[in-house]
Amino acid sequence: MERPSLEINLPDTHEEGKLYVVDSLNNLNKLNVCPAGSQHALDEEENTGDTGENRAETNTRNQCLFFVTFILTLIVSLALVSFVIFLIIQTRNKMDQITSRLISEKKTIEELKKMNNMILKHLNQSGIKT
């Protein structure tokens, strides 16, 4: 298959017609030269005019979005760390309560053992057998 030639003999037309034909040839040349994805980018560059300012705006917008996301992430992380610290403190308080209760119950059990031994000694001395 042969590719059609891009050279076209233009008949003499009015100025508006010439501009239209040249514009059509430029569009046709873009379609033949550029891939499909880059054609859209070329059209946007033509429509936007000064792309340097737009790129700077986009970069600034991306940086602002990055910093806002970063700050939100830090706030959420701080909240999670605070919650974990709160849970650790609560757990330590509960463990202290349980430990103190166990110590007091251990003392009570030791006192009961002493009383039991005293009763057994008294019974053995009085001569009553169990």
TrEMBL record:
Gene that encodes it: Lsmem1
InterPro entries reported in the protein's UniProt record: DUF4577 (IPR028099)
Source species: Rostratula benghalensis
Transmembrane helix is among the record's keywords: yes
Superkingdom of source: Eukaryota
Transmembrane feature ranges: 65-89
PANTHER family registered for this protein in UniProt: LEUCINE-RICH SINGLE-PASS MEMBRANE PROTEIN 1
Protein's recorded name: LSME1 protein
Presence of the UniProt keyword Endoplasmic reticulum in the record: no
